[in-house]
């Protein structure tokens, strides 16, 4: 587990740390964000009183990380603001949340950018002590690294490369995959939000619109996904054809062997 030097109270690790109650207690962890698939989701004992947010996400360059970046960053901010004395829920601008301990969001769902409610009645004990937030994935390299970098970007108004360098000062192995890196660069261009928020929308109670840059990225991603699916289907079809050809060849070999055996038997009888 590594402390992020530029953000007191923020930590990053691989999957080993959240699986160790002793380690969590030694570091005084109060909040955990798990970035894994369902199979790798850690079980944190409820008696530790730790607020736990699980985000289902694969370490895949085509995962839509942008959809949930703002919500996760706001969740971390809400945790730290809780420790500073406020008991009100901090929400991502333009989205609302009403979740609590053991929350779960998916990066590709419509509610992915919502911020879970971390200050319900079960969380008041957490607010009474110093907040320490652990962000982890399986290896502590790509997924959790991307979120720590995103948080630094938004907190200090940094571009991707500057925030990455800061994060690597605390944990040298942090390396978001190529797709996450591209999305974080785009996030900086969009000023750390995929939403266009206008006074008219706010006054009329309308949902914020997605920015054109994100819409374009999502469209291009859809094309890549469809191409990938087509390629996978071609590989599968070729594999099945090869398998059928091998079975056919094997049947032919067995048939020839049977014919040869029958010929030898007939010759022996004569």
From TrEMBL:
PROSITE patterns: TYR_PHOSPHATASE_1, TYR_PHOSPHATASE_2, TYR_PHOSPHATASE_DUAL. It comes from the Eukaryota. SUPFAM superfamilies: (Phosphotyrosine protein) phosphatases II. It holds the Pfam family DSPc. Signal peptide: none annotated. Residues 2-193 form the Tyrosine-protein phosphatase domain. GO terms for molecular function: protein tyrosine phosphatase activity; protein tyrosine/serine/threonine phosphatase activity. Residues 113-171 form the Tyrosine specific protein phosphatases domain. InterPro entries: Dual-sp_phosphatase_cat-dom, Prot-tyrosine_phosphatase-like, Tyr_Pase_AS, Tyr_Pase_dom, TYR_PHOSPHATASE_DUAL_dom. Residues 86-114 are annotated as: Disordered. Keywords: Hydrolase, Protein phosphatase. Its EC number is 3.1.3.48. It is an enzyme of class 3 (hydrolase). Belongs to the protein-tyrosine phosphatase family. Non-receptor class dual specificity subfamily. This is protein-tyrosine-phosphatase. It comes from Trematosphaeria pertusa.
